[in-house]
Amino acid sequence: MSFDLDARIRKVPDFPKPGILFYDITSILLDPEAFSYCIERMVERYKDRPVNAVAAVESRGFLFAAPFAHRMGLPLVLVRKKGKLPGKTRARRFQLEYGEDVIEVHEADVHEGQRILLVDDLVATGGTLKAAAELLVECGAEVEEIFCVIGLPFLKFREYLAGIPVTTLIDYEHE
């Protein structure tokens, strides 16, 4: 299927700071055809794969993972920022470009031997996704693959996430 996803992605220069080109997926959400395209590509890719749960990174990852998990009849595990989950959680601290952050998952939501597809909207350096994958593995799951709508391979996320297959619908080779 030929579809111009690039034309549906808004590019915002100098956001969130000067010199950064921000790839905004909200324009995909405004376009039902583009949003449907993304979900259908996910279904095509993973319909015959040995995945039995989907984990989504807060918050834009939820937007793509939830309809996909629903379509596939799979449980959806939320990977959230610290302090957002009310139950017993497990946490992972990780480095950001300018500081650090913490993500958490409900311990009861991840099961030993579960084969998880990890979803986010965009992968840049891979720091958040690596922390999420490590957290899921620490809880006993296997991360089968990472899926993102947008990839920025010039930031070397594949090297940083070595050992975990990463699939993207569209890659941008430079800002």
Automatic annotation (TrEMBL):
<feature type="domain" description="Phosphoribosyltransferase">
    <location>
        <begin position="45"/>
        <end position="149"/>
    </location>
</feature>
<dbReference type="GO" id="GO:0006168">
    <property type="term" value="P:adenine salvage"/>
</dbReference>
<dbReference type="Pfam" id="PF00156">
    <property type="entry name" value="Pribosyltran"/>
</dbReference>
<comment type="similarity">
    <text>Belongs to the purine/pyrimidine phosphoribosyltransferase family.</text>
</comment>
<keyword id="KW-0963">Cytoplasm</keyword>
<dbReference type="GO" id="GO:0006166">
    <property type="term" value="P:purine ribonucleoside salvage"/>
</dbReference>
<comment type="function">
    <text>Catalyzes a salvage reaction resulting in the formation of AMP, that is energically less costly than de novo synthesis.</text>
</comment>
<dbReference type="InterPro" id="IPR005764">
    <property type="entry name" value="Ade_phspho_trans"/>
</dbReference>
<comment type="pathway">
    <text>Purine metabolism; AMP biosynthesis via salvage pathway; AMP from adenine: step 1/1.</text>
</comment>
<dbReference type="GO" id="GO:0044209">
    <property type="term" value="P:AMP salvage"/>
</dbReference>
<dbReference type="GO" id="GO:0005737">
    <property type="term" value="C:cytoplasm"/>
</dbReference>
<keyword id="KW-0808">Transferase</keyword>
<dbReference type="GO" id="GO:0003999">
    <property type="term" value="F:adenine phosphoribosyltransferase activity"/>
</dbReference>
<keyword id="KW-0328">Glycosyltransferase</keyword>
<comment type="subunit">
    <text>Homodimer.</text>
</comment>
<dbReference type="InterPro" id="IPR050120">
    <property type="entry name" value="Adenine_PRTase"/>
</dbReference>
<keyword id="KW-0660">Purine salvage</keyword>
<dbReference type="InterPro" id="IPR000836">
    <property type="entry name" value="PRTase_dom"/>
</dbReference>
<protein>
    <recommendedName>
        <fullName>Adenine phosphoribosyltransferase</fullName>
        <ecNumber>2.4.2.7</ecNumber>
    </recommendedName>
</protein>
<dbReference type="InterPro" id="IPR029057">
    <property type="entry name" value="PRTase-like"/>
</dbReference>
